[in-house]
Design brief:
Blueprint: H1 2-5, H2 16-31, H3 37-47, E1 56-62, E2 85-91, E3 127-130, E4 139-142, E5 191-194, E6 203-206, E7 211-213, E8 217-221, E9 227-231, E10 262-267, E11 271-276, E12 281-285, E13 315-320, E14 324-329, E15 334-336, H4 350-353, E16 372-374, E17 395-399, E18 415-420, E19 424-429, E20 434-438, E21 455-460, E22 464-469, E23 474-478, E24 493-498, E25 502-507, E26 512-516, E27 530-534, E28 537-538, E29 540-544, E30 553-556, E31 558-559, E32 570-572, E33 579-584, E34 588-593, E35 597-602, E36 615-621, E37 627-635
Antiparallel strand pairs: 1-2, 3-4, 5-6, 7-8, 8-9, 10-11, 11-12, 13-14, 14-17, 15-16, 18-19, 19-20, 21-22, 22-23, 24-25, 25-26, 27-28, 27-31, 27-32, 29-30, 33-34, 34-35, 35-37, 36-37
Helix pairs in contact: 2-3
Length: 640
């Protein structure tokens, strides 16, 4: 109607926008010898509002006395007079001119793809376009929570979706906070997200150790953000009320109080370490096989000159092994002195000068914490609110180091994660480089070359290692006599954890798979509630009928584990596909689902699989003669 309203008797339009396209069409017809543009303009503007589908449809006379004047349709045999015929023409509005007609789903003023409105003026997947009309341009924006994780189109406005930000964008198909991808489509603290693309959503998993399986014990962060440990109690490693412990290996290293909020825990063989929300660490358990110990409990101290470190360094990641621990620092307060260049002589370290700012350079291969100095942003006279210091992410290892696992690692300040095994350790840098160090008897520290792909994670086990690259392919190397280096398939993996002689991993569909030694049932993963099965027959229980002449009605006998079935029947259920974490110990395994429910299975000789407050049942006898158990009913804290 707007088009019709602007046509005047003298065929002059008062709206140049709405009839601009018609002039273009009229000019084309005039050049073809059809007639005056004014007549066609009038015809088009009068009739475009009658037939808008597919473009601007208009009718005009061809031939006769009324040539080029408008007519009323193909059935009009009167208006055009003798020798004239009413014919039809359609003007198709060009895509990309910034004006949206009925034939276009959007028009953002260009023909570029990837900006929400495609080169054919259709709305691209993952976007929404609004505001376009016959006189205005469309504005397109990324849709957060639709399940399509885009790589472009972000903006700096807080109301926009952050999903395509390369550092912390995500889209997991909803706008619910607390599941790893926030309500504004940014990765939440403690999580990592993988797998998202323009055609698929992200899967987000907590990368904090909310549960950690040691050798004969297990530790977890309970729903109140406090540490809880169970299993073998020797050396006080399962104690958590440190204020009540006395003895040679009683007090934890670090500062602790009852009000602390813990976010991750790492269980080793006879000691543990945990991180608090503020980044500070504590370690407790056995100090080692001598009066002074082997250093596993001696946390790297803050610089000697530092008087305000509040309990040492701050950390972002920690993993405990057989007799040592490795962690990744998260320090903005300290930085290393620059390394000496060729021909330069090193100066005195900060430890030697007892000052917070050193002089000169440090030897290139000397990464001792003695060379840490206070970052300029953290000097007393600097306004820290306006001075931003990059975080120092140096990896440090301490403890037993017979094979060099405590010291012989590449020292750099861009580590992302580290993992500690029995006698070796592995880590990945923020740039995707992978390294392993320590015992290499079975080749477990020889990281495969995968360039141009990058490592996302590498885990260290007993005498083997496994890693996942940025194409979600899994690689395992080292000792494989028990099958621990032979995953059932190569692709579509999210996370992996190596135990002593077995390995477990979470796949893209969040199912869990374990392989390798199963001598204690550590690879028998819990499934969903199922039925008791024997030789492909279903064990039935009568639920109705039984009257003479009336057929009895039966239903399957449901079960959670083999303990619910009568031998020789076993419980079989559908694969559980909501795992978020897995931790592999020596003879047992624990996993956590997306609802923070913890399951442990395998050996329970030391109580390492019996979760506190849960239900533990014997589900069979393992090949080594030990009873196999499954335990459930423990809930961890929310990932922070």
């Amino acid at each position: 109607r707007a088009c019709c309203a602007v046509v005047e008797i003298n065929n002059r339009s008062t709206d140049p926008l709405s009839c601009r396209r018609t002039r273009m069409a009229a000019g084309a017809r005039q050049r073809a010898g059809v007639g005056s543009w004014r007549a066609i303009l009038a015809a088009a503007c009068v009739l475009c509002c009658l037939h808008g589908v597919g473009g601007i449809r208009y009718y005009f006379c061809q031939g006769g006395d009324q040539d080029s004047l408008s007519c009323q349709g193909l059935a009009d045999t009167i208006t055009c007079g003798t020798g004239g015929t009413c014919i039809e023409d359609i003007y198709i509005d060009p895509c990309g001119n910034g004006f949206r007609l009925e034939s276009e789903a959007c028009d953002d003023g260009n023909l570029a793809d990837g900006d929400g409105c495609s080169g054919t003026c259709t709305v691209e997947r993952g976007w929404t376009c609004d505001g376009g009309s016959s006189s205005s341009i469309d504005v397109c924006s990324v849709v957060c929570g639709d399940g399509f994780s885009l790589s472009s189109g972000c903006c700096d406005d807080l109301t926009c979706s952050w999903e395509c930000n390369p550092s912390y964008g995500c889209d997991d198909g909803n706008t619910v906070a607390g599941d790893g991808c926030s309500d504004t489509c940014s990765i939440e603290s403690g999580f990592e997200c993988w797998g998202g693309s323009g055609s698929s959503q992200d899967t987000c998993l907590c990368t904090r150790n909310m549960v950690s399986a040691g050798f004969t014990h297990t530790c977890g962060v309970n729903a109140n953000y406090q540490i809880e440990c169970w299993g073998n109690p020797e050396n006080n490693k399962t104690k958590n009320d440190f204020n009540t412990i006395t003895g040679a290996f009683a007090w934890p290293e670090g500062i602790w109080n009852r009000q602390d909020i813990f976010v991750t825990v790492a269980a080793g063989a006879e000691h543990n370490c945990a991180l608090k929300f503020d980044g500070f660490m504590i370690c407790w358990g056995w100090i080692g096989p001598s009066l002074l110990g082997d250093g596993r409990m001696f946390l790297p101290p803050a610089p000697d000159w530092e008087r305000n470190s509040d309990g040492g360094f701050t950390w972002r990641h920690v993993q405990s092994g057989l007799g040592f621990t490795c962690g990744v620092m998260d320090e903005a307060r300290f930085q290393y002195r620059p390394a000496c260049k060729e021909g330069e002589a090193s100066g005195l370290s900060c430890a030697q000068t007892s000052k917070d700012r050193c002089t000169g350079c440090r030897p290139p291969d000397d990464w001792s914490t003695d060379w840490l100095e206070r970052h300029p942003c953290h000097l007393s006279f600097v306004d820290q609110a306006t001075c931003e210091a990059p975080h120092n992410k140096t990896a440090l290892c301490w403890g037993e180091s017979f094979y060099g696992q405590g010291f012989e690692f590449p020292v750099r300040s861009d580590w992302s994660t580290v993992d500690s095994g029995s006698f070796h350790a592995c880590g990945v840098t923020e740039g995707g480089e992978g390294f392993c160090w320590g015992n290499n008897l079975y080749g477990q520290t020889k990281v495969p070359a995968i360039a141009p792909r990058k490592w996302v994670q590498i885990t260290a086990g007993g005498s083997h290692s496994c890693g996942i690259d940025d194409l979600f392919m899994i690689h395992c190397w080292g000792r494989g006599l028990e099958g621990q280096t032979a995953p059932p398939c190569e692709d579509a993996w999210l996370r992996v954890d190596a135990g002593t002689l077995h390995t477990c991993g979470i796949r893209m569909d969040t199912s869990l798979v374990c392989w390798g030694s199963n001598q204690a049932g550590q690879c028998n993963i819990p499934h969903l509630r199922g039925n008791c099965i024997y030789q492909s027959d279903v064990q039935m229980v009568q639920v109705g009928g039984g009257t003479p002449g009336v057929a009895a009605v039966f239903a399957p006998f449901e079960c959670d584990t083999n303990a619910d079935c009568t031998l020789p029947r076993v419980c079989e259920g559908a694969v559980k596909k909501d795992w978020s974490q897995v931790t592999a110990g020596e003879l047992h395994t624990c996993g956590t689902d997306v609802n923070r429910n913890v399951f442990c299975w395998g050996s329970n000789l030391q109580g390492q699989s019996s979760v506190p407050g849960g239900t533990t049942v014997t589900v069979g006898t393992a090949p080594n003669g030990q009873p196999m158990v499954q335990s459930r009913g423990y809930v961890t804290a929310q990932c922070l």
